[in-house]
Design goal:
Distance between the termini: 29 Å
Bound molecules: fructose -6-phosphate
Largest sheet: 7 strands, parallel
Helix content: 25-40%
Strand order of the largest sheet: 1-10-9-6-2-3-5
Strand content: 15-25%
Number of strands: 10
């Protein structure tokens, strides 16, 4: 796909909130998700793993414990999962979501979904995953982190965007970045199942959280650079309703959104 210059018209759809610290990012992001859940208790959430949304999940747990939120009718669909990996494995995204959010709130286990990391027929699993989301009415709000290389989900820089949920070969930079969660780098799975960029853009709203100087390049390339599959998150410029919550460090290379 050819790169396109960013027009100001497109950028009106992106709201950037720059916070002093990670705690504030987490509170603001949780307030947005809490608003969606309160307004529509049967909403469909698109969720992400990684370190960025952990504080937001903690804030949501606090709100649930304070009796402010009811997740009993909420449905959730995660963006991605390593492949191959057993859901019971403590490095799986299934396990991550259980320990960081699901087991602390009253979401119905039947309503939570993470792509299956031990599926045999991957194509069928990917198709079925999207079908399930579509039948649930589509994602109301999709939470995203962003990789240092601009990836969203596990959509790595490439020559073309992947539209559909699919099997991805992880890039060396992502394997290295994710090695912090494993005992050793060799343990990081080399593949993952991920919603494609095209499918992510189907969500009605997008909420991206990022912190730290390591994300500065990705944030500026995604929001102010050309729309190109070499920076997968740059496709967010095409979405009508994106909120990006970052700290000053992650925002440090932004020119127009400060
Ligand atoms: C996780 C995911 C990834 C991460 C990204 C940033 O479900 O889809 O795209 O959001 O790798 O990871 P952290 O937040 O650990 O820096």
């Amino acid at each position: 796909m050819k790169s396109k210059a960013v027009s100001n018209e497109l950028k009106k759809n992106i709201k950037v909130i720059i916070c002093d610290d990670y705690a504030t990012i987490s509170q603001k992001a949780a307030a947005i998700i809490a608003g969606v859940v309160s307004l529509d208790p049967e909403c469909v959430l698109g969720l992400a793993t990684g370190s960025s949304p952990v504080g937001m999940y903690q804030e949501l747990i606090k709100k649930y414990e304070a009796g402010e939120l009811d997740f009993s009718k909420v449905k959730s669909y995660n963006l991605d999962e390593y492949y191959p990996i057993d859901p019971e494995n403590d490095q799986s995204y299934h396990y991550f979501m259980d320990t960081n959010l699901f087991k602390h709130i009253n979401i119905d286990p039947a309503n939570v979904h993470v792509p299956s990391g031990n599926a045999e027929d991957i194509e069928a699993v990917c198709d079925e995953y999207e079908k399930m989301i579509n039948e649930a009415g589509g994602i109301d709000i999709q939470v995203l982190g962003i990789g240092n290389n601009g990836h969203i989900g596990f959509n790595e820089p490439a020559d073309a965007y992947d539209a559909k949920t699919h099997l991805v070969d992880l890039q060396e930079s992502t394997i290295k970045a994710n090695a912090r969660f494993f005992e050793k780098e060799e343990d990081v799975p080399r593949q993952a199942i991920s919603m494609g960029v095209g499918y992510i853009l189907n969500a009605r709203r997008i909420l991206l959280v990022a912190n730290g100087a390591g994300k500065a390049y990705a944030i500026s390339a995604a929001l102010e650079g050309p729309i190109t599959p070499q920076v997968p998150a740059s496709a967010l410029q095409l979405h009508p309703d994106v909120t990006v919550i970052v700290d000053k460090e992650a925002a440090s290379l932004l020119k127009e959104f400060c």
